[in-house]
Amino acid sequence: MNVLLSIAFDALAYGMVLFIICIGLSVMMGLMRVINLAHGAFAMIGGYIASYVAGPMGWGYVPALVCGVIGAALIALPLERLLYRRVYGASDPLVQVLMTIGLTFCIIGATNFLFGSAMRAIPLPALISGPVDLGVRTVPAHRLFVIACGVVIASGLWYLIERTSFGIRLRATVDNTGMAGALGVRTDWIYTATFALAVGLAAFGGAVGAEIMPLDPYYALRYMVTFLVVVSVGGAGSIGGALVAALLLGFVDTTGRYLAPNYGEFFFYLAVIAIVFVFPHGLLRRGA
Amino acid sequence: MTAALEVQSLCRSFDGIVVADNISLSLAAGDRVALIGPNGAGKTTFVNLVTGTLKPDAGRILLAGVDVTAVSDVERVRRGLVRTFQITRLFPDMTVHEHLMLALLQRAEKTGRLFASLDSFKDAGAEADDLIAQLGLAPVADVKVRALAYGHQRLVEIAIAVALKPKVLLLDEPAAGIPHDEVLRIIEALERLPADLAILMIEHDMDLVFRFAERVIVLAAGKIVCQGTPEEVGRDPAVRAVYLGSYASRDRDALGPGPTVGRGRA
């Protein structure tokens, strides 16, 4: 029973981190139609900035998260202007794949050069570093914090996209860029803002999830496939799909590690193959 | 009185082929003008030049007396020059109501409250409902556009354009692809448009042109070959030549294939 609860709780926390990071990638792939393999690299940048601000600079946890998000977005924006803008909707996805994987290796190299290859931690504040007694059992407060962040982000994003003046412009731009432009929507601005939002969410996920997905320069490469799998299983562009996929895959992966650690990620990918076999277009398609 | 839209000596060519040859025309507020011509006459190029999608090689475009030749297409929309599209270009995953909210928010430039709920824009919501009722779209207001009949989609396009409160409206083939019995609905919608709006309609359906326009301009090979009341234009030998093909055989490459009068009537 205890093991089961531990699995469920860890799986929920891990799934939420996956969701926070992947939802930005899902929005980019589903809405802006760019396969951004460097998404994990942006999550890593957010985590590294946060670890630097909270560690050596000693500013504390919340400023570290804020700096991580803003810093990663600031680094990503010129890249959007200079590189990504040229490959939005490119007829050959290979161009996007090659460009963004090249970018990933550049970021890994730069991170290695600047911070070395050792693992980085983000010191947690006392409030979320200890255990919390939930009655049935005690759980790490940080896991609870991560789960709460996931819930807030999922509902906030849903509200932003479905119910606000920005969301209606974003959906219009995605559905038909030319027509949106003809109505006077600043579509290039919308793309830039969405890109910044996607990177910001990745950076936030990289920072709050550092306890679960440890930061080192190869983070960007290690989780690249995991992130793509979540987006693809969930159905690109779907918030609900990304949430379901992240939680489901988080659960499968965590269970596999607890119960059959020798098999590595065997069960994770077995589940992926099974899901893709049954739902070739993802669990939830956009608009469904 | 200053013309709502004035086009002066507009010229444009692609790879040496002239598609707009010294076109000049002027629309006053309240004008109902139709631009007709055979396929390949340069009608769509002309619209693209006026809206700013294409840049002219020479000539000027004035909106309410102000030269907008160097102004971007988006800015022209802001200044009251709005077009609908030849091919249905709506947002398939958005509802009719959301389409109008978008257009109304764009018009009001409510960009400062990006993260406010749509429901909080009460004026825009009420105006959207009004427009929806005006165009007979109330039963489908909350339906996603991808699920609408083609005729309804064209009405949504017109509703969006009108929601932008244009001073000059370019209607690009509003009846194209619509079954003839539904054309009536379009005509009714057009007749309810504000009286002071200057409208230039590009259209093949002669029924619609003759019911709608006070003045008809005939374009062939990028040139205005004739203009006048629908009756005058209907009698003009140059127009008959354009549509009956003798003009076309002399200048076939520029004009494209065959006569198009009466398309959509069958």
How does this structure look, described?
The complex is a heterodimer of chains A (288) and B (266). With 288 residues, chain A is mostly helical. Chain A has a single domain, classed as ABC transporter involved in vitamin B12 uptake, BtuC (Orthogonal Bundle), CATH 1.10.3470. Chain A contains 13 helices and two strands; from the N terminus they run αααααββαααααααα. In chain A, strands 1-2 form a two-stranded antiparallel sheet. In chain A, a hairpin with a 4-residue loop joins β1 (131-133) and β2 (138-140). The longest helix of chain A is centred in the N-terminal third of the chain and has 30 residues, at 2-31. Chain B is α/β, with parallel strands linked by helices and 266 residues long. Chain B has one domain: P-loop containing nucleotide triphosphate hydrolases (Rossmann fold, 3-Layer(aba) Sandwich), CATH 3.40.50. In chain B, 36% of the residues lie in helices and 22% in strands. Chain B has helices at residues 43-51, 73-78, 96-108, 122-134, 150-163, 180-191, 206-212, 230-235, 237-244, 246-250, 252-255; strands spanning 5-14, 17-27, 32-36, 58-63, 66-67, 81-83, 168-172, 198-202, 215-220, 223-228. A six-stranded mixed sheet of chain B has the order 6-7-8-3-9-10, with helices on both faces. In chain B, α3 packs parallel to α5. The longest helix of chain B has 14 residues, at 150-163. Chain B starts with a strand and ends in an 11-residue tail after the last helix. Chains A and B meet through α6, α7 and α8 of A and α2 and α3 of B.
